[in-house]
Amino acid sequence: MNSINEFIVHNEVDQSSVRPDARTAVRVEGLTKMYGGLAAVDGLTLEVPAGRMFGFLGPNGAGKSTTIGCLTGLVDPTRGRVELLGEHLNRDSIELKRRIGIMPEGLGLFDQLYAHEFLAFNARMMGLPEPTVRSRVEELLEVLELTDARRKRLAAFSTGMRKKVAFAAAIIHRPEILFLDEPFESIDPAGVAMLKEWLRQYVAGGHTVFMTSHVLETVERICDDVAIINGGRLVWRGEVGRLAVGGTITLNGEEFSTLEALFLYLVGERRGRLSWL
User: Fold this and answer.
1) Which ranges of 86-125 does DSSP label H, i.e. alpha helix?
2) Per-residue pLDDT tens for 136-148?
3) Is the CB of residue 120 less than 8 Å from the CB of residue 114?
4) Does the model's pTM come out above 0.85?
5) Which CATH number fits domain 4-267: 3.40.250.10, 3.40.1280.10, 3.30.300.30, 3.40.50.300?
6) Phi-psi bin for 206: left (phi > 0), alpha (psi -120 to 50), beta?
7) For the chain, what percentages of helix, strand and coil (3-state, to nearest 5) are there?
8) How far is the CA of 50 from the CAs of 20, 26, 31, in angstroms?
9) What is the pLDDT of residues 172-197, one digit of tens each?
């Protein structure tokens, strides 16, 4: 392997697991998750084609992270059906779960491990052969500029460094679908630019990214499709690529030239004043 770009775009070890006929990466029907009497996700129905950069947006508490938890097997839905790559997801879907990568909201790092130990553990859990494990761990640490931190346990890492490790763990086995919950938060601008380039190459190779982010300008520039939820319910779904090239989106007779303007129209602007400012 000559570069991290080759690792993301092509790898012979994993290529046999990619199914070219799986045209729908994610299919959700009537997904509901109840916490007591509160519906965190309320009857969500959604399809995401394979080979797309998909943005899943909403205000705080809208149900984004809960939805990702249900889509990845981290959270048991109360009702509804989830299909990934044409297969029904359930508790026993071990092989299917090896075909996806997850960067969850809470990161899920083992703080007493070193970064190389954590990445190797994740790669082995995904079934990669030992030579591949070693080469990918070393390459990811080098490219993410974490080599100098080999003697520090994850508990001593900064928030940005922890984000990088979580991203590396999610992508190390080159999954067919990559679920990312706020992937760019706390990472420096140069690091964000590199990760965005990786994701573009990853999608160009036929894979799928399903990501949440509050940075709407970034979503507008890199995502093909976007879904917006509010109160656990889908309020809009559409393509946003035209916005990045100066186009507009028309909804209910209104024209929107930015994703932020569309988002605020759909979920409502928040206005308030502090008397002491």
Assistant:
1) 94-97, 115-125
2) 999 999 999 888 8
3) no
4) yes
5) 3.40.50.300
6) left
7) 40, 25, 35
8) 9, 8, 20
9) 999 999 999 999 988 999 999 999 99
